[in-house]
Amino acid sequence: MTELSYFKDPNRMEFQAEVTRIQYLQNGIIAATLPLTYFAPTGGGQDHDVGWIGEARVIDVIKLDDGEVYHFLDREVPVGIHNARIDSDRRIRNMQSHTAQHILSRVFELDNDFNTLSSSINFDHPSTIDLDTVSISSSGLRNAEDKANKIVQQNLPVKSYLINDEEISTIPFRRPPKVTGKIRVVEIDGFDYSACGGTHCERTGTVGLIKIVKSEIQNKKLRIHFLAGLLALEFIQEMYEKMNAVSGFLETGWEQVEIAVKKQMDGIHGLRQKMEDYRIKFLELEKNQLRTNQITYKSIKIITNLYNDLDQSDLKQLVNSMRIENCTLAVLASISDSKLTMVVGCSDDIGLDARLIMDSHLKKINGAGGGDKYLAQGGGNYIPGTMQDLAQDTVNIIKQIKFSR
After folding, report:
1. pLDDT tens digits, one per residue of 167-191
2. Residue 274 placed within a domain
3. Domain count across the chain
4. pTM for the complete prediction?
5. Rg (CA), the chain
């Protein structure tokens, strides 16, 4: 069994590591065993420490069921004494996030009667708490954040100690322990009691800051995303920089960004409405112009045109507006970024299949599409020089088709 010395001294980042055994596990993994370690293994929703033992990089730390701890290394080191160093930045971030989770979980329990079902502690992105509820108001989240930060500001001692099974009833645990035997208690001085094997700050003030950044429903549970300490500071710094950049674009102070953005959005909404009005007028005028330029073959009114950068939705709307009239065949296409889009529509009374006509046109560019006998749409990579005379090409296609009028 490996002695977990970080329980007593979580701030110890350097120590003399006695490597008593080196093993080669599956896939060439090198595992070092120490009788005593300050490296924290993965557990309790918290990720493991990393660092160095001698010249070797510690890339993972796991605790086995028998209590022995394996330190996975990127290279072999000889059995003996080595200088060991823990990645202090990662450790501190884990400590801040884990202590913050205990504080937030207790606040949600006291104020809302929400129980923490699970948690995930992260050192480089938001940590999470899953609560046994599916809803909370924005004011409820703000209230929990405020109260959690007051606990941080009180700089309460965070103590850890071991108890046995007989002493469980003497501790007001937030959640009953899942283990038996020697149980490690992490107590935030009279505020919260948890059975936990993770690393924690020695005082709540070291957490620095707790910031809730998101809430969502996951599997019928409320998931709270939060940041603490250095991560929270970096988040606020980044948000501040981006807010300043946006305020520069809007030529206003960051305090007025919300008002300025609302004004811009109102203006954009007005412009979109005007554009939609112009679009409707354009399509009506274009429909009349297309009718003026139509040709006739065997009493079929053939309407064609090749556009530049006309949306497929507009093509479809134009074709639909014309194919409802008797004896009409409409073939409209548009070129945009070397792509061709085509829509073909047939009135019900001409006995032609829109899909067949479209496929015949698109063969020139190895295009494809789909639809039904009355309306078809498709496209492909445009080949310059093709589709330049849609009207005559359409007549030639009809000549090759046996159809009844």
Report:
1. 999 999 998 888 888 899 999 999 9
2. no
3. 3
4. 0.72
5. 35
